[in-house]
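Q: Here's a chain of 191 amino acids. Please give me its 3D structure as tokens.
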Amino acid sequence: MFSVCLTLVSIITDNLCQLQGTIPFMAIDMLIQYANGSGSVAPSPAHDLESLIYVFVWICVVYSCSGQVRSDISLQQTCVKGWTCIKTLQDVETLCNARTGELTMKFFLNYFTPYFEQLKGPMSALYDLLRASHDPNGPPLTHEAIKKILLQAFFTVKQPTSEDGADAKRVDKRWVDMYVTEDLNDGRKSR
């Protein structure tokens, strides 16, 4: 029994890179690695932050309001259609090329539903950060940079009205209690 467990741990460890990520939301560097079958790029926090930006785009394009998938056009008529049709390595390469083009063109902003219209500015700023991070001489994509944009958006974006989104439902504001805990490993405080 113990040898079976060791074998399973070995298989999981050897295939860990294959278990990470969801292709439609993968960072460009990870898509390139996946398409090439190489293991030269180690997953990093910057890759996770890039994926988060793609998740935000998906939400703003696919949903008409909180929890409601848009019904005015099909997913296949939006800019994220290529994110959902991945069956071959060629499809991964196509997605990678499309992502690279999106960094400059930002055409995805044209597909935002009215409910998320106010988020075009913050999403554009996130893509500017992303584009700069892909420049070899540019700054890295960091948690602090993303947090700054999201906090600015939080304090400037207004509650959508029914005119902003025909299907918009009232969304109640909720406060999240923040608390500080003591990190037992090195004594630092974290939020």
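Q: Can you summarize the key feature?
A: The longest strand covers residues 63-65.
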